[in-house]
């Protein structure tokens, strides 16, 4: 049962604004040394006077995504204002309205500079509530439930002070003068806390550093450790029955088990190692290829350096794979070879301590390593929602070309398996994914993306794994070539809305996307 209570606007530390009912944050102000934000509550009415109330940042700890959205709009509006000063026209944040330069009215000033005694929202059900001239709650009244969750009633109150959204947008000119540092710190701390909960961070942490400005990556992003398939729109993996495991046994030693590549079923589609074929073997292989037959029984290229080679390169990609675009087929959970099989690597996840950092050159956030990385060492996979091609096109159209793109097509086997473009899947790492979301493009990259499959019979869902293509010293930014171009391969002619590349490499192709 929810209790009708009077809620001090900067009340008890445990009181929290109920995030499910919040529409957005629409303003900010400084109040008695505290930072406050104007919450616009959801309502089923179409109105220019929705429920609004001021809250201390402490009460907004469950709504920091909304606060961050507001601060982003506010920051952009600040830039717009400074760019357009001089022609006396201003773009107003959020509303898209333009207004002539004007001075705030005394009412607006009052809204922003109130510093009277603790203000109180009025509830008709609380008869003892003192009459108040407070303007902390507008167009409605606040309630709280027994858990201290504050929410606004979903019907108008003629009793409450009135405030419309146009006035809020106009008074936001003053909001730009007030500090939002506390909110920025809360947002950053929240992000850091979330980073600490990402699976695998106990062994290999993910850090966050920003020496450029006070921003934090979006809190709307969710860290995930595996793909999230959009099953509602028909995205599925091939059935698990097709995910046959191999019959190699564990701990059989070098050149036995999966490394005895003639026998490992998982390597059926891996590249044949023709350097290990004698004349008769070469002939048989040519015949198998000509007849489109399975190459099972021929020795295959094993993807990783195995034990017995130098300890420091064990587990790294061998040059054959490193320098080619060949898919890597790893063993899977149905295999008999067990967890220590040397053909299992990427599936265990990130092995490198990384840092998300704000880049200097206008490329937003980037990712760098906190330890030296060896040539051929696995770094991490790209994660996200797996969506249909149609859904990816819809999302792409809905956002501008200049906006950061996080879409990654799973088209490796399209040609060989004759999969039509519209049947392909796409990984979208914008709203959920891993730290590789922050890897920027370079025309001379230090990492490269590889296809890693755990089910050779599923050409539509596989992992995209990043490996170092050369030694990367600790602290260097991790980059890959978004277009996966070969050295010297030219770009298409840039169109009108082509995006310039800011990688700064000597051999930069100049365009990120043409
Ligand atoms: C996958 S995101 C990389 C992370 C991104 N920097 C961020 O802050 O979230 C890709 C976007 O980063 C930016 N970007 C990456 N590499 C770039 C480059 N070399 N030049 C310009 N922008 C780049 C572009 O906006 C691109 O759409």
TrEMBL record:
<keyword id="KW-0862">Zinc</keyword>
<feature type="region of interest" description="Disordered">
    <location>
        <begin position="84"/>
        <end position="134"/>
    </location>
</feature>
<feature type="compositionally biased region" description="Basic and acidic residues">
    <location>
        <begin position="99"/>
        <end position="111"/>
    </location>
</feature>
<dbReference type="GO" id="GO:0005634">
    <property type="term" value="C:nucleus"/>
</dbReference>
<feature type="domain" description="Post-SET">
    <location>
        <begin position="497"/>
        <end position="513"/>
    </location>
</feature>
<feature type="domain" description="Pre-SET">
    <location>
        <begin position="244"/>
        <end position="349"/>
    </location>
</feature>
<dbReference type="InterPro" id="IPR007728">
    <property type="entry name" value="Pre-SET_dom"/>
</dbReference>
<keyword id="KW-0489">Methyltransferase</keyword>
<dbReference type="InterPro" id="IPR046341">
    <property type="entry name" value="SET_dom_sf"/>
</dbReference>
<keyword id="KW-0158">Chromosome</keyword>
<dbReference type="InterPro" id="IPR001214">
    <property type="entry name" value="SET_dom"/>
</dbReference>
<dbReference type="InterPro" id="IPR050973">
    <property type="entry name" value="H3K9_Histone-Lys_N-MTase"/>
</dbReference>
<dbReference type="GO" id="GO:0032259">
    <property type="term" value="P:methylation"/>
</dbReference>
<feature type="compositionally biased region" description="Low complexity">
    <location>
        <begin position="118"/>
        <end position="134"/>
    </location>
</feature>
<keyword id="KW-0949">S-adenosyl-L-methionine</keyword>
<dbReference type="Pfam" id="PF05033">
    <property type="entry name" value="Pre-SET"/>
</dbReference>
<dbReference type="GO" id="GO:0008270">
    <property type="term" value="F:zinc ion binding"/>
</dbReference>
<dbReference type="Pfam" id="PF00856">
    <property type="entry name" value="SET"/>
</dbReference>
<dbReference type="GO" id="GO:0005694">
    <property type="term" value="C:chromosome"/>
</dbReference>
<dbReference type="InterPro" id="IPR003616">
    <property type="entry name" value="Post-SET_dom"/>
</dbReference>
<protein>
    <submittedName>
        <fullName>SET domain-containing protein</fullName>
    </submittedName>
</protein>
<keyword id="KW-0808">Transferase</keyword>
<dbReference type="GO" id="GO:0042054">
    <property type="term" value="F:histone methyltransferase activity"/>
</dbReference>
<feature type="domain" description="SET">
    <location>
        <begin position="352"/>
        <end position="483"/>
    </location>
</feature>
<keyword id="KW-0479">Metal-binding</keyword>
């Amino acid at each position: 049962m929810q209790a009708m209570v009077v809620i001090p606007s900067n009340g008890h530390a445990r009181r929290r604004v109920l995030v499910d009912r919040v529409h957005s944050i629409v303003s900010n102000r400084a109040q008695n040394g505290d930072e406050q934000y104007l919450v616009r509550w959801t309502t089923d009415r179409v109105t220019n006077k929705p429920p609004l109330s001021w809250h201390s940042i402490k009460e907004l700890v469950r709504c920091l995504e909304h606060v961050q959205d507001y601060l982003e709009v506010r920051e952009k509006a600040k830039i717009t204002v400074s760019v357009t000063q001089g022609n006396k026209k201003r773009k107003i944040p959020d509303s898209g309205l333009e207004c002539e330069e004007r001075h705030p009215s005394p009412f607006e000033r009052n809204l922003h500079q109130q510093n009277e005694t603790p203000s109180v929202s009025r509830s008709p059900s609380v008869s003892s509530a003192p009459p108040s001239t407070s303007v902390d709650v507008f167009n409605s009244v606040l309630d709280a439930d027994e858990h201290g969750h504050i929410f606004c009633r979903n019907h108008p109150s003629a009793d409450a002070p009135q405030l419309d959204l146009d006035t809020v947008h106009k008074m936001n000119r003053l909001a730009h003068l007030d500090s939002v540092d506390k909110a920025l710190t809360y947002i950053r701390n929240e992000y850091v806390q979330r980073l600490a909960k990402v699976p695998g961070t106990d062994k290999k942490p993910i850090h966050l550093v920003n020496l450029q400005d006070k921003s934090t990556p979006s809190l709307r992003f969710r860290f995930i450790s595996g793909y999230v398939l959009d099953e509602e729109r028909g995205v599925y993996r091939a059935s698990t029955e097709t995910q046959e495991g191999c019959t190699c046994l564990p701990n059989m030693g070098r050149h036995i088990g999966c490394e005895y590549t003639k026998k490992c079923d998982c390597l059926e589609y891996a590249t044949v190692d023709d350097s290990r074929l004698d004349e008769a073997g070469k002939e048989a292989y040519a015949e198998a290829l000509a007849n489109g037959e399975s190459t099972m029984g021929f020795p295959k290229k094993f993807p990783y350096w195995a034990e017995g080679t130098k300890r420091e390169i064990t587990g790294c990609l061998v040059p054959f794979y490193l320098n080619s675009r060949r898919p890597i087929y790893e063993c899977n959970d149905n295999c008999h070879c067990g967890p220590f099989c040397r053909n299992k690597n990427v599936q265990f996840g990130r092995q490198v301590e990384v840092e998300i950092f704000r880049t200097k050159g206008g490329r937003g956030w980037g990712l760098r390593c906190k330890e030296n990385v060896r040539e051929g060492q696995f770094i991490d996979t790209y994660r996200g929602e797996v969506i249909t091609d149609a859904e990816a096109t819809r999302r792409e159209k809905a956002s501008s070309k200049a906006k950061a793109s996080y879409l990654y097509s799973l088209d490796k086997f399209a040609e060989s398996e004759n999969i039509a473009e519209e049947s392909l899947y796409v990984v979208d790492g914008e709203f959920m994914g891993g730290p590789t979301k922050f890897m920027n493009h370079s025309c001379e990259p230090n990492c490269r993306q590889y296809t890693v499959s755990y089910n050779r019979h599923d050409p539509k869902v596989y992992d995209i794994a990043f490996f170092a293509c050369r030694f990367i010293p600790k602290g260097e930014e991790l980059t890959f070539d978004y277009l996966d171009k070969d050295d010297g391969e030219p770009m298409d002619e840039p169109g009108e809305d082509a995006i310039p590349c800011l990688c700064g490499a000597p051999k930069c192709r100049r365009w990120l996307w043409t």
